[in-house]
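Risk register update: the risk of archive-format incompatibility is retired. Evidence:
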Amino acid sequence: MTKLSKVVCVVAAFLAIAAAAHAQDVKSDQQVLIELEQQWDAAFHRGDAKFIETLLADEFIATYGDGARGDRAKELSLASDQRQQVDSSRLDEFIVKTFGNTAVVWFTQILMGPVNGKPTEVRYRYIDVWVNRGGRWLAVASQSTRLSAKE
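Archived output:
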């Protein structure tokens, strides 16, 4: 094997290793959207409206569990309101479908917190719609439905 052949083999091996490492760091849109949902939930419970503001498109509209609607300003106001005690929140049962620069995310939220001094579990099903603008996913719509205790 010539010296040039050895150099070419070493460079090729290095490029293959670098490409494999980069491929492991690249996240799918589904992974990114699940992480954004989890970060939104965590930010909501710590009252971090500034972070949530980075996730919401200007035209964001939410339909809440009681049927009321709210815009971006309402959602940010709710995130700042810390009157409700939530001991834990968990997101589960994710389904993520992408359609070009649009994605729909379905999931279940399980909240634990006191109601009249007793630990209580409350569950919601969500559907969130996201659009990718300039390489960033932004939420444009969210709807939650409170589940009965049996579900």
